[in-house]
Design goal:
13 helices, binds magnesium ion, binds adenosine-5'-diphosphate, eight-stranded mixed sheet, Rossmann fold, alpha/beta
Length: 252
């Protein structure tokens, strides 16, 4: 049975989607059948993998029970990497899901047969701890928490870990934190170095050794509809995501 990773942090702009797309691409490159599930209505991961954000069926249909995940999954231009695309309509799910009993298990149930087919499934979460992220955390085995290496980085992290513990206790005993990932790190600034030290001091066992540098190739890759390892395979950003994928696999 494959392993499901959620990429989650209630803050926006911390590198969730970038990490989801690039970790998925690195794992696929290593030869494992991999699925990226975009569960953010902004559909940045969908577009970042070269697909339009108005495709039918999509993850909204899957969550509302109108489509099967098997029908909604599409191939990407990358070998071994498939996508369950998002759609702007998914914004409505945040309102609809809480009104329906047991809806926090929708994604988990929809992925039951799917996880037999893919060695790894990566869930790109929206920037909130609302019903969509809860669905992802109920479906997932592991969570990766990207943390932008900026002032205020620590803010909200303790609360996020409390939420993860609550979900583990009440809804998904399998859930474990794979690690926190420092992103957009600018090694030239003292601030970035201070923040890195502080986050590592607060969460000694949790922070990945690999740090993702601030890298222009990473930020321009989505506009070409491809992950950075295909946009510029030898840049510092591609190297870092390869290293991270190895570290994630080694942590199990
Ligand atoms: P989130 O999904 O958490 O909202 P994104 O992955 O979309 O965050 O990243 C926010 C913005 O920062 C995007 O424009 C993305 O291209 C850019 N970005 C992410 N990681 C890096 C990086 N390591 N270096 C430079 N830009 C980055
Ligand atoms: Mg995102």
């Amino acid at each position: 049975m494959g392993t499901i990773y959620a990429i989650a942090n209630q803050k926006g702009g911390v590198g969730k989607t970038t990490t989801a797309v690039n970790v998925a691409a690195c794992i696929a490159e290593a030869g494992y059948p991999t699925l990226l599930v975009d569960i953010d209505a902004q559909a940045n991961a969908t577009v970042g993998l070269g697909h339009p954000k108005d495709r039918q069926p999509n993850v909204y249909g899957v969550l509302s029970g109108e489509a099967s995940a098997f029908d909604a999954i599409v191939p990407t231009t990358i070998e071994n990497l498939s996508l369950l695309p998002s759609h702007p309509d998914l914004a409505g799910a945040s309102m609809e899901l809480p009104r329906q009993a047991g809806s926090e298990g929708r994604l988990r149930d929809a992925l039951v047969g799917i996880r037999e087919r893919f060695a790894y499934t990566i869930l790109d979460c929206p920037p909130s701890l609302g019903p969509l992220t809860v669905n992802a955390l109920v479906a997932a085995d592991r969570v990766i928490v990207p943390v932008q290496t900026e002032y205020f980085a620590l803010e909200g992290l303790a609360g996020l870990l409390d939420t993860l513990a609550l979900i583990q206790r009440e809804l998904n005993p399998r859930l474990a934190v794979a690690g926190m990932l420092l992103t957009m790190h600018d090694g030239r600034t003292r601030l970035a170095r201070d923040v890195e030290r502080e986050v590592r001091e607060h969460f000694p066992a949790l922070v990945f050794d690999t740090v993702i540098p601030r890298n222009v190739r990473i930020s321009e890759a989505p506009s070409y509809g491809r992950p950075v390892i295909h946009h510029d395979p030898h840049c510092a950003g591609a190297d870092a995501y390869f290293e991270l994928a190895k570290e994630v696999a080694a942590r199990g």
